[in-house]
Design a protein that fits this description.
endoplasmic reticulum, mainly alpha, transmembrane helix
């Protein structure tokens, strides 16, 4: 049987033990539930773009690789970007090609032909060509304003008649217009085979010249050619005629 003295010693020792626990408890690690209850905030999650950067997807890697190849190829192919470039002597000739694919000569030429034409069939073709050119200008301007891809760094801003949106590169308006006009001419003008070949070659040369002059990257031109090719289908679908647009044709009736 324990003595009264030993019982008193155990009871006297308990306060010391409790005091030791109370001293240790502030430094003891908190459980997750206690941290949540105490209002401690967890580290904020990483932004979504940082997560994507840390864990890039296959699509992201493929697009980054394609962009790197595009910039590299565009730099290498820009052989007429300046007078001191590898093919700098051909730059004046390519600038003539540049003017041939510009929107202003095509708009002015189509408008003049529309005013001088005495044939109703010719007026119908020219009016739809004018509609196609205006549609091309609006669509390219909208896409450039949305994408806002800058032009290549080796480009010299000495282009023929530019507007504010022309500081952007994607897509190539010259390539879009060349593909659109090429399909339009081949479908609505009766040309001999050599002339048809020349029309196709002109469209391709316009596209290639944009890269050689340093105006655009390769993907700008490729997308522009595809866009112009598809845009002709929209023009055909919305074809203007005296039946569905009599007011427009009445303006050009002599």
């Amino acid at each position: 049987m324990p003595s009264p003295r030993s019982s008193r010693e155990r009871r006297a020792g308990r306060p010391e033990f409790v005091s030791l626990l109370s001293q240790r408890s502030p430094t003891a690690p908190d459980s997750p539930n206690r941290r949540r209850e105490s209002g401690g905030s967890a580290p904020p999650p990483l932004p979504e773009e940082d997560c994507m950067r840390l864990n890039p997807s296959f699509v992201g890697i493929a697009l980054s690789s394609l962009l790197a190849v595009d910039l590299w190829a565009s730099k290498r192919l820009g052989v007429c970007a300046g007078e001191a470039s590898a093919w700098g002597s051909a730059r004046p000739l390519l600038k003539v090609v540049e003017v041939s694919g510009h929107g202003i000569p095509w708009l002015l030429g189509t408008f003049y032909g529309l005013c001088q034409s005495d044939s109703s069939a010719a007026r119908e073709v020219l009016l739809n060509l004018l509609f196609a050119l205006l549609l091309d200008l609006v669509l390219v301007a909208v896409v450039k304003g949305i994408v806002r891809r800058p032009r290549p760094t080796h480009n010299k801003m000495d282009m023929f008649v530019t507007v504010s949106v022309d500081k952007y590169s994607f897509p190539s308006g010259h390539a879009t217009r060349a593909a659109l006009v090429c399909r339009f001419v081949l479908h609505h003008l009766v040309l001999a085979v050599p002339l048809r070949v020349l029309v196709v070659l002109w469209a391709l040369v316009v596209g290639v010249s944009r890269v050689m002059l340093g105006r655009h990257n390769v993907t700008d031109v490729l997308f522009g050619l595809l866009l112009g090719y598809g845009l002709y289908g929209v023009v055909e679908y919305c074809w203007l005629s005296p039946l569905n647009a009599p007011a427009l044709f009445a303006l050009w009736t002599h």
